[in-house]
Amino acid sequence: MNFHLPQIPERSQKPRSSGVTMMMDKGLSIREAENFIDASGHLTDLVKFGFGSSYITNNLQEKIKLYQSAGIKVYLGGTLFEAFYIRKMLDDYKKLLEKYGLDTMEVSDGSVLMPTQKKCEIINYFAKDFTVLSEVGSKEEGIIVSPNKWVKMMTTELEAGSWKVIAEARESGTVGIYRSNGTAHTMLINKILNKVNKEDILWEAPKKAQQVWFIKLLGANVNLGNIAPNEMIPLESLRLGLRGDTFFTFLEEEKENLELEASNAFDYERN
Description:
Layout: E1 21-25, H1 30-40, E2 46-49, H2 60-69, E3 73-76, H3 78-86, H4 90-99, E4 104-107, H5 116-127, E5 131-136, H6 147-160, E6 164-167, H7 186-195, E7 201-204, H8 208-218, E8 224-227, H9 232-239, H10 255-270
Helix pairs in contact: 1-2, 5-6, 6-7
């Protein structure tokens, strides 16, 4: 940090397994990726090439090496995995990961139907050679998955070898763990947390209000993903209580005194 402030929540340090932040790269150029690393690489644990964008991204190998040289794990979007899966090309997918020197990958079934047993077999297969994230939840609006099924899928996939399970929200933040208006399915999330270790879950939270909600619920070191490149520093500011939305979150014991002092100081300045 550039200077000292007391009562700032302690953040886990990279490489870390809690407090992870995943940035979603939807087509940054090499120069934009370089600028991103310069500004926010120290805050970034994972970069996901969103959906199937890696298929048409220029200088893909160069971008991957650029992120990796900054200590950032890179993986290809789950939709691309599903595109290979539905074409019965998983061996080709593994060769693709090896070709590009990727040690991290995502297994998802948000767009295709995949039996749970089959998904877990795939997770187990890839987990022997890669760090696996598996995504739970549908990408389609209006599809309701019961809390018990969410819990069952998450626990089963972690047992199969997933490093983290991703709670689906898409880049829109309007499906899966969120309602169509972007607000959290509170009951669903609380039931998940009653059964699944919070450090094992990466919550997709592309919207500021969603990030605030999770930080207030689970603290500064909640795992969050689908963050836009230009939102990494704003998100870290939220995590540290350095934006208005979370300003008093980590000062609860002295909240009333601080609010009173701030009010008195303001009144004094006015007078």
